Amino acid sequence: MSPFDLTDRTALVTGASQGLGLGIAEQLLAAGADVLVLSRSEIPAGLVASAAEAGRLVRWYPVDLLDAGAVDRVCADVLAEHRVDILVNNAGTQARYPAAEFPLEMWDRVLDLNLRAVFQLCQLLGRPMLARGHGKVINLASMLSFQGGLTVPAYAASKGAVAQLTKALCNEWAAQGVNVNAVAPGYMDTEMNAALIADPERNAQISARIPAGRWGKASDIGAAVVFLASAAADYVHGAVLPVDGGWLAR
107 by DSSP, 3-state: which? Predict the structure, then answer.
């Protein structure tokens, strides 16, 4: 059996209706996992068709991750029906304003989704993993876990915190059989980066710094998540894995 085979594993992915989350869900299905999706938006029909063709389960649980009570309830529903072996905290948001003008209500929204919801899901779905002595948690960090960025102070703060949370949970959970790691996507050709892609100057600056010569794709992140979710990464704990085409190395 391949060490990357996820057959008989169930993965829960947040925000998998589009972008990186959808690419992650597709790669997990291809590796043999069943996939549960927590998101506000319904999952695309193509993902359902792919799961059916592969003989895998995919199920959508509608939830607003900004609502802590709703997260509690949906996780209770999930755990009543499924054993969650893999948690992928992908859902996130950003807002662009100069720091001196950044609205506090937007700051709270970004931190609530990008950090509070991540920790809450780690708690709720990590507890059964700890009880079983096995599980995989993969958080989505960012290049802005390492850099400060421009006009995205809340996003940078939240993703820096996600990297540190990943390490903190590793220190408590690794000896109990639960791997907690993070993937730090580089510049991805997704909806979230539409403003950067449309800005000729920033697009050129970013592209010139990527040794691989291209922006990343959702499947690039999905493949890294499959690795961290698999037996091949059983001795990988507390890592923040850049998947950036070499951007950090330049």
Answer: helix
Catalytic residue selected from 61, 155, 187, 235: 155
Tens digits of residue pLDDT in 164-173: 999 999 999 9
**How far apart (Å, rounded) are the C-alpha atoms in residues 143 and 169?**
20
- Report pLDDT digits (tens) over 127-143: 999 999 999 999 999 99
For the chain, the structural domain boundaries read 10-187+221-241
E strand or H helix that includes residue 76: helix 68-81
Q: Indicate if 187 belongs to the active site.
A: no
Enter the CATH code of domain 10-187+221-241: 3.40.50.720
**205 DSSP 8-state letter:** H
| Strands of the 240-243 sheet, one edge to the other | 58-62, 34-39, 10-14, 86-89, 135-140, 178-185, 240-243
Structure tokens of 228? Answer: 């961290």
CA 227, CA 186: separation in Å to the nearest integer?
A: 17
What is the 3-state secondary structure of 58-73? Answer: EEEEECCCCCHHHHHH
Identity of the residue numbered 17: S
Q: Give the Cα separation of 208 and 210 in Å (integer).
A: 6
Tell me the average pLDDT across 56-63: 97
Q: Give 176-220 pLDDT, tens digit per residue.
A: 999 999 999 999 998 878 888 999 998 999 999 999 999 999 999
| Cβ count near 234 (within 10 Å) | 12
Exposure string for 66-99, b = 16+ CB within 10 A, e = fewer: beeeebeebbeebeeeeebbbbbbbbbbbbeeee
